Amino acid sequence: MSTSSSKKIGDVILEVKNISLAFGGVKALTDISFNVREHEIRSIIGPNGAGKSSMLNCINGVYHPTQGQISFKGQTFRHMNSRQVAEMGVARTFQNLALFKGMSVLDNIMAGRTLHMKSNLFQQAFRNPFGFSKAEAEEVAQREKVERIIDFLEIQPFRKTPVGRLPYGLQKRVDLGRALAMEPQVLLLDEPMAGMNVEEKQDMCRFILDVNDEFGTTIVLIEHDMGVVMDISDRVVVLDYGKKIGDGIPDEVRANEDVIRAYLGTSH
């Protein structure tokens, strides 16, 4: 399950510079800096309340940092909303599923194609002489891409099933599929394996590695399972009480005394 040694890590695609975030008098993040390189799996770890999800929320425009800036593909910004970030090529899954429970698997993943839909209701009114509208032709093309994602994630038997009827592990897979439908360059995964059993975790690990390998997607991952993190990550950044206490390849992070203390309460 470990990452391939032959994988080519590229240049820095995402850089977080001196990010601080406060809610009133409460500091969620303090002067955090790290970067993410193309094609790598970059994990963010830390105890509960360390600021991990807040960091992802800053990256994808849900929160606006109090201080600092974020650069994506060389473009620096302080304040950008979630749609603008998505249009730049960043997709996100959420710790708490935000799927449309009454809609089918297919329709949920189709929702991820919204940014790529070029036609609008006005265009739909104008059909070509063969009775096939531009919008309908586009929907066929979009649906083909979604069907490929469904095949990739091995959820073909459930494509017409309302998501709310699926087991939790499969719902997490649908959530990943919806993010993949955006064709992101950078994929932010917020605890994609939370609440899963061992077999479901193994499946999700495989899909994450395949997304990274076959699609070349850069992945930023929050995960509590240290075995998973150390197995699949290229580099790991560690937060504790909103501050960065470690950063490096898995072996370096494993040996970091500050990280050991934050997790185990001991220097051994």
From TrEMBL:
Single GO MF descriptor: ATP binding
Highest taxon of source: Bacteria
Keyword vocabulary terms for this entry: ATP-binding, Cell membrane, Membrane, Nucleotide-binding, Transport
Keyword Membrane included in the entry's annotation: yes
Domain (ABC transporter): residue spans on this chain: 14-266
Name of the featured protein: ABC transporter ATP-binding protein
